[in-house]
């Protein structure tokens, strides 16, 4: 099986998972009467339902990690395929929700992204933007993982990316962190009115650092054969 075939199978798996996720979320939100999660009157879910939803989120992450592990042959390609699976799953989740529920109506609609460890809030555009970076970066790593010279971001790129992750997570959780002192009820009543786009854009640029580094490395590879040919011509003389 070629790397491209592996990539396509991972994408197909993630697409199927995305539809299942969309259907489950539709059932849950229909059951509680809130297809649009951004409602002025918060829904107080039972403790067992909240616990089940948290475990489901953790199980989803394990499934995405598992397919990446099975698809890859090295630890680098396994991480790459995992990023591809996560990104495709996240993007298509919203794509499938539109015909199923009529939501989101736009990329700026607010959504509750995760419940662990506190609820994450953000416009749909925010997680989709990160998901696009994950697909691009994961594709570069998984398809160019060669034994002789694998593509892999340098330390500076990883450092920038980790700072970007921290900033993005903070932006998503900022409102619930401020409300955490009031307990579970205060957290459930959080409905953000403004998204910190300036900080998020900085986070997005930092998250893109590994992709920039990978593209720089790939461009260098393409230029190397020509540079070697030029050196050979010069050594032969006129």
Structure description:
Helices cover 72% and strands 3% of the residues. The protein has 238 residues and is mainly α. It has one domain. A two-stranded antiparallel ribbon has the order 1-2. Strand 1 (110-112) and strand 2 (121-123) form a beta hairpin. The longest helix is centred in the N-terminal third of the chain and has 30 residues, at 3-32. The termini are far apart. Mean pLDDT is 86; it is low at 225-238.
Keywords:
single chain; globular; mainly alpha; 3% strand; disordered C terminus; 238 residues; two-stranded antiparallel sheet
Order of helices and strands: HHHEEHHHHH
What is the share of helical residues?
over 70%
Report how far apart the termini are.
Answer: 47 Å
Q: What's the number of domains?
A: 1
User: How many strand units?
Assistant: 2
Rg, alpha carbons: 21 Å
Sequence stretches where pLDDT stays below 50 over 5 or more residues: 225-238
Number of continuous helical runs: 8
- Give me the side-by-side strand order of the main sheet: 1-2
Tell me the structural class. mainly alpha
Task: List the topology elements.
Elements: H1 3-32, H2 47-71, H3 75-101, E1 110-112, E2 121-123, H4 125-143, H5 155-179, H6 183-188, H7 197-207, H8 209-236
Antiparallel strand pairs: 1-2
């Amino acid at each position: 099986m070629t790397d491209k075939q592996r990539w396509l199978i991972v994408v197909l798996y993630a697409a199927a998972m995305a539809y299942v996720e969309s259907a489950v979320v539709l059932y849950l939100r229909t059951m509680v009467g809130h297809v649009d999660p951004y409602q002025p009157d918060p829904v107080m879910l039972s403790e067992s339902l909240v616990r089940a939803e948290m475990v489901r989120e953790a199980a989803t992450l394990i499934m995405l990690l598992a397919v990446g592990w099975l698809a890859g042959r090295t630890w680098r390609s396994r991480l790459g395929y995992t990023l591809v699976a996560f990104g495709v799953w996240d993007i298509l989740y919203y794509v499938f929700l539109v015909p199923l529920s009529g939501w989101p109506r736009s990329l700026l609609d607010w959504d509750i992204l995760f419940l662990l460890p506190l609820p994450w809030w953000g416009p749909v555009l925010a997680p989709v933007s990160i998901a696009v970076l994950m697909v691009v970066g994961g594709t570069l790593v998984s398809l160019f993982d060669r034994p002789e010279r694998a593509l892999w971001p340098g330390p500076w790129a990883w450092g920038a990316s980790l700072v970007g992750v921290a900033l993005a997570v903070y932006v998503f959780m900022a409102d619930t962190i401020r409300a955490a002192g009031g307990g579970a009820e205060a957290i459930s009543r959080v409905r953000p009115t403004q998204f910190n786009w300036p900080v998020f854009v900085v986070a997005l640029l930092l998250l893109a650092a590994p992709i920039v580094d990978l593209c720089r490395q790939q461009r260098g590879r393409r230029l190397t054969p020509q540079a070697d040919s030029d050196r050979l011509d010069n050594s032969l003389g006129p």
